[in-house]
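Progress note, sequence design subtask.
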């Protein structure tokens, strides 16, 4: 089921529940009918008492007057059931039943609605009012029942136009005479219709507004989602190089947040794909050179007889193998480092203590190659959230880089400061420095500018690129800048967010 259908269904169900109040009108109708039934009984009893106290000669005028004034039909029967008097014969009829065939179609529609509502609420069937062909009491069961029980009996029937007709039979005096009253209560039908019509109009208007608002709501939700779905399909199929994902900047709701998050995710995914493609191309290029050198050396070995030249070719081949091995190791680390860091749970660690431990370990194995390592870490702890092994690798790379470019006996300064919730660590060497235009390039993969005299191929050009990737995963920055003291040399600055106590 689509989202539009669900929104419409929910709102229509709510309006349908409101429309259920139409059934309440059935109790209103029943109440009116019950009150009118009681009124018919009271009228019959009052008129019967009046007739019992009236001489026989004065009864016809009394029946005619009461029938005309109260819009009733009054019939008087003797003890044998013969009709004595009929107010409709004594005076002009006070009411007439309407012929449905002569009424406009609107009345037919109203009667159809009445029948539909009666069927919906389970209203009991009511007999049709049929005028007796022979004017005797036998045509009216309520007369016989009232005579038998000695009390007023009320019956309800339907006129040809479906309006209620109430008949009430009651004894008159002690001579066995019976009175039958008949009233066509058209006002009840009109009151119920008016109430139903008013409520139906209200419900209809509410339903129309609900549908329009539902369609508007569905449009504001479904259309942007469909646009995002189409963009997602294009991203999945990969047919468009640059898929434009709608950002919906004019929307400040959750849909707009979703669109912008999806757009950012797509851009990040495209950037990651481009980086992977570029990395794969760089890997192929970097591996091609040592492989070509290795192939040339191996092919030349078969043709060379001079032992010294063969030994030189063997050294070249061994050097290329070591270079390929180093490249493969560094490439493997660089390709899996993002995935590993995304699953790593960072823990609080003291970066100052990590630097001290690392400096001691390097001094023991002579990794600084005679360079002087000066630590300016200050007092106290410098806490950050991170992975100790990965940050240790970053520090190793920074120190190895400084050792490579510093002259023998040169000084390497490692300084730690705190500023605005950030821990800043700078590693400054005494080398030639890094030109301003090349300071970003040193962090590119396979970019390697080595000092003079260093063995070719001893570095893969991935060290600083891997270091920056690790720092980025720790929500930090790694950049090249001028030395803080203004002296010549390069300075690599590492910044990490300080861990809250």
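Output:
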């Amino acid at each position: 089921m689509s989202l539009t259908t669900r929104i419409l269904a929910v709102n229509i169900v709510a309006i349908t529940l409101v429309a259920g109040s139409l059934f309440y009108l059935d109790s209103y109708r029943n109440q009116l009918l019950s009150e009118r039934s009681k009124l018919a009984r009271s009228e019959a009893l009052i008129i019967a008492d009046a007739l019992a106290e009236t001489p026989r000669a004065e009864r016809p005028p009394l029946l005619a007057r009461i029938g005309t004034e109260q819009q009733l039909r009054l019939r008087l029967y003797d003890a044998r059931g013969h009709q004595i008097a009929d107010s409709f014969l004594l005076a002009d009829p006070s009411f007439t039943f309407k012929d449905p065939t002569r009424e406009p179609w609107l009345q037919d529609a109203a009667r159809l609605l009445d029948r539909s509502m009666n069927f919906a609420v389970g209203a009991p069937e009511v007999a049709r009012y049929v005028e007796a062909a022979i004017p005797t009491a036998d045509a009216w069961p309520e007369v016989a029942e009232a005579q038998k029980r000695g009390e007023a009996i009320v019956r309800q029937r339907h006129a040809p136009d479906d309006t209620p007709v109430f008949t009430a039979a009651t004894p008159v005096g002690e001579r066995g005479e019976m009175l039958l009253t008949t009233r066509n209560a058209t006002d009840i039908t009109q009151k119920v219709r008016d109430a139903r019509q008013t409520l139906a109009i209200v419900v209809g208007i509410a339903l129309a507004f609900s549908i329009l608002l539902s369609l508007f709501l569905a449009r504001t939700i479904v259309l942007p989602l469909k646009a995002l779905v189409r963009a997602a399909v294009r991203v999945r199929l990969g047919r468009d190089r640059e898929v434009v994902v709608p950002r919906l900047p004019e929307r400040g709701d959750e849909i707009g947040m979703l669109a912008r998050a999806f757009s950012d995710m797509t851009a990040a995914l495209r950037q990651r794909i481009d980086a992977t493609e570029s990395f794969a191309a760089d890997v192929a290029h970097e591996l091609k050179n040592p492989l070509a050198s290795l192939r040339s050396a191996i092919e030349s070995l078969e043709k060379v007889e001079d032992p010294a030249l063969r030994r030189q070719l063997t050294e070249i081949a061994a050097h290329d193998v070591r270079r390929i091995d180093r490249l493969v190791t560094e490439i493997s680390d660089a390709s899996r480092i993002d995935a590993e860091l995304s699953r790593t749970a960072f823990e609080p660690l003291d970066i100052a203590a990590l630097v001290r431990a690392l400096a001691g370990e390097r001094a023991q194995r002579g990794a600084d190659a005679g360079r002087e390592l000066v630590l300016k870490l200050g007092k106290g702890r410098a806490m950050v959230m991170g992975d100790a092994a990965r940050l240790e690798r970053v520090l190793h790379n920074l120190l190895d880089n400084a050792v490579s470019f510093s002259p023998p006996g040169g000084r390497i300064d490692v300084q730690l400061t705190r500023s605005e919730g950030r821990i800043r660590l700078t590693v400054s060497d005494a080398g030639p420095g890094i030109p301003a235009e090349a300071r970003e390039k040193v962090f590119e993969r396979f970019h390697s500018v080595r000092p003079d005299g260093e063995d070719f191929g001893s570095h893969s050009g991935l060290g600083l690129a891997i270091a920056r990737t690790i720092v980025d995963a720790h929500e930090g920055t790694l950049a090249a800048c001028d030395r803080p003291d203004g002296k010549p040399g390069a300075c690599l600055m590492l910044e990490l967010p300080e861990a809250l106590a």
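The first helix runs from residue 3 to 19. Work on this subtask will continue into the next period as scheduled.
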